[in-house]
Design a protein that fits this description.
The protein has a single domain, classed as Porin (Beta Barrel), CATH 2.40.160. Helices cover 3% and strands 65% of the residues. It contains one helix and eleven strands, in the order βββββββαββββ. The longest helix is centred in the middle third of the chain and has 6 residues, at 131-136.
């Protein structure tokens, strides 16, 4: 299991605490070094936000594949179905995803990694009220995480591509610190013919995270 949290200074409504429990069954046909490991997993997370609209839980189930290529290089792939159940319908979402990851071990305590993921299903976006957003949205709500009441969150169908590069440093047998860069591109499935804005929403994220197993 894991415990985690985020604290936002400017928009405190996005601050959250989360607890996650995960179970996985793994199968390996032999003890040969290059034998892949197949898995089936289920993950349940409970989330509490300063925003009342976002409180709820997430459920993910899927299949995984792990394969060592050398004593330093490992690959991972997973296919999953994901659901989020929140206080607001806008933040209650479903999607399917496929993702892959490759790790390279630099030393006993250092790993660098690259990852890619494709998601198809519900997307949530936040912005000012506009005819374009209302047209593509399945449901929308005034977002209580942002002061002034000028921002709305919209749920719509579409696809998302995520690319990740990172560095992980083990601090001990149970904890580590992780630095990563993530590129995210989300594209609505519906686009009105009269819209002139960019078709996709793009963001880049830099993260530093402390991780502990218990």
């Amino acid at each position: 299991g894991t415990l985690g949290g985020e604290k936002f200074r400017r928009f405190n409504g996005l601050s959250r605490l989360a607890a996650t429990a995960e179970a996985e069954y793994q199968y390996r046909a032999s003890s040969e070094f290059d034998e892949p490991t197949l898995g089936a997993f289920a993950r349940l997370s409970a989330e509490g936000f300063e925003s009342e609209l976002r409180d709820g839980y997430r459920l993910s189930v899927g299949l995984s594949y792990r394969q060592p290529l050398t004593d330093r290089i490992n690959v991972f792939a997973a296919l999953s179905h994901n659901q989020r159940h929140a206080s607001s319908r806008v933040f209650s979402t479903r999607d399917n995803s496929i993702r892959g990851n490759i790790d390279y071990t630099l030393s006993d305590t250092e790993i660098i990694y690259l990852g890619a993921e494709y998601r198809k299903g519900d997307i949530v976006s936040t912005g000012r009220a506009s005819l374009e957003n209302v047209t593509v949205a399945d449901v929308l709500v005034q977002d209580d995480a942002y002061p002034g009441g000028q921002f709305f969150s919209y749920r719509f169908r579409g696809s998302t591509v995520l690319l990740t590069a990172g560095y992980n440093l083990a601090l001990g047998p149970r904890d580590s610190i992780d630095f990563s860069w993530r590129h995210i591109r989300s594209t609505p499935g519906l686009r009105p013919s009269w819209v002139t804005s960019p078709r996709s929403y793009t963001a880049n994220q830099l993260s530093a995270v402390y991780l502990m197993r218990f």
